[in-house]
Design a protein that fits this description.
The structure holds 2 protein chains of 2 kinds. Chain A is built from 8 helices and 11 strands. Chain A has 3 domains: 34-140, Beta-Lactamase (2-Layer Sandwich); 191-276; 284-419, 2-Layer Sandwich (Heat Shock Protein 90). Chain A is α+β, with helices and mostly antiparallel strands. Chain A is rod-shaped. Chain B folds into 2 domains: 2-120, Rossmann fold (3-Layer(aba) Sandwich); 126-224, Winged helix-like DNA-binding domain superfamily/Winged helix DNA-binding domain (Arc Repressor Mutant, subunit A), CATH 1.10.10. Helix content of chain B is 42%, strand content 25%. The longest helix of chain B is centred in the middle third of the chain and has 16 residues, at 105-120. Chain B is globular and about 55 Å long. The two termini of chain B are 28 Å apart. The interface between A and B is large, with 41 and 44 residues.
Chain lengths: 422, 225
Amino acid sequence: MKLFAKTFRYLIVIQLIIVTLWSVAFYYSMMHEIYDSIDDGLDNYKLLIIKKAASDTSILYKSQFDESNYAIRAIPFTQAVSITDRYRDTLLYMPFEKKLEPVRILHTAFENNGKYYELKIISSMVEEDDLIKSLFWAVVILFCVLNITILSINHFVLKRIWKPFYKYLKRLNLFKIESDPDILPMKTDVSEFVQLNQSVDMLVKNSRKSYSNLKSFTENASHEIQTPLTSIIHHLELMLADSKLNKDHAQSAIKAHQSALRLSKINKALLLLTKLDNQQFQNRGIIDFEIIFNNVIDELSELAEFQGKTIEMEISGKFKHTMDHELASILVVNLVKNAIIHSLRGTHITIRIFDQQFSVENEGAHGPLPDEQIFTHFFKTENSAPGLGLGLAIVQSICRHEQFKIEYSFEGKHKFTVTGTK
Amino acid sequence: MKILLIEDDESLASAIREYLKSEDILVEVAQNFQKGQEKAMLYEYDCILLDLTLPGGDGMEILKTINNSPVKNNVIIISARGALEDKITGLESGADDFLPKPFHLAELNARIKAVVRRKLGSNSNEIRIGEIRIDLNNRKVYIGQQEIQLFRKEFDLLYYFAINKNRLLTKSAIAEYVWGDHYEDADNLDFVYYQIKNLRKKLLEMNAPFQIASSYGIGYIFKDL
């Protein structure tokens, strides 16, 4: 879950609880005020009636509400003492409206000239009822608007605060230590983010240092290996040239000689890969792949011919690219050599050149190769021809270096397609 | 012939020295930068073999000293740094040839001979080995007075054999010399045999007093019948 979403979720839960509690409390306190004010009115009215009854005894016989809003009934003393002031909500039939209407009723008792009377005063609640309804809706609307506003402000603010962070995260994800310059820092005044900037800068600096140390170590190691290897090869050659050598010893020496040559070739190939990763091919010029292919075919034709394979070239476009000449040759040599080595006697190797694309196709003895693995270092199939297992890794490295796309496909034939970017 | 070898690896130096000894080439070895520079400045050699990574300094500096000194010495760089750009820098700095490690001894022998021949001038562009006369300018080979008709690759092959006469040439050394770097694939050298078979046939037809004998299946020796 995103940090932003998580913060927001906490916020929304807390806010909903608080605003809900507040709304309910507000509603009930308003209700209380309304009833209080009605009840005060009724109380006041009660005093007025009692006062009036003292001077005008006729009202003491008004036992129905009728047109006015009170009713008086004589009661015995025993009953009167049990009556206290009581306010109630009730429904009363209104003859004009011909329906029951909500009213507030005050039920009380008083004494006049030694006699006791029960007094009921009503106050219509029709208007108050509307008021309560409006109040209710006002609170509901306020609740919604408040929630939406606060949450959207929070949303906006949170998003704004985290924005540089997410941008930075994206840059971090795309960062490549071997080629990219330093990561652009976040534009922010949040101190944690500033700290993050500094930590990442430090980390990049240290990693870069380790990386370049490792790089130069690999390169130096590969170079240093060549001299003792040369020495091994030379001493074996001297030994083999010695006529006193017996046949068994010679066989061992031959095997050692072959292994040393092979080791040296692996070393050279690894060195090439290291140099590619180190961007050390800077001798750039405009390369026409048709010319490169012609040169390479010229060089390799005898090998192909000897193995009973023919190389055909179909040209339907120009593939020109600015790159190191040596690299272009290595790329093409590896693809063509790969096709020659892995094709069957008596088959064709077809090279097609299009605009910004070329392909090398050959018939092999076996079905499709696992295309995620063929470009890895030292990939070999169980029935593959002898080789270093580095040719296609080199091809892929060069393609990556030049931002070419390399694809392998199989439709009866093995096909490698290289597409250039324009 | 006298050669200066500036190389810090003793084992490699001893192999080169031993190999060239049988070619009647005297090899002096300088094992560090200072000794190498000293000798290169003071004495004249037929050829100097120069390693670039030396204890005490960069071989390129020695190359500069050689170019600026009154004693004219020819230089073949033997370097562990075999990339094209290293080669170009080396040749641009005045080296006569550039041989990346690892190389075959026969290859080194051929390169030394070529450099020495170039030094002696155009009239040396003919070599005689026994009854074989090789005209390098016109790329023609004669046995006695008779010319052998050879294809391009066969000429290169015979030349390589001739200057490494009585020596074992491994198949990979032959492949690399005649066909180039891309053919050095050690497991894939049957075409060398095929080419040699043709050359043998031509030598036989000419009644040449030489033979190409195979040795242990690893390579061939060119020798008198």
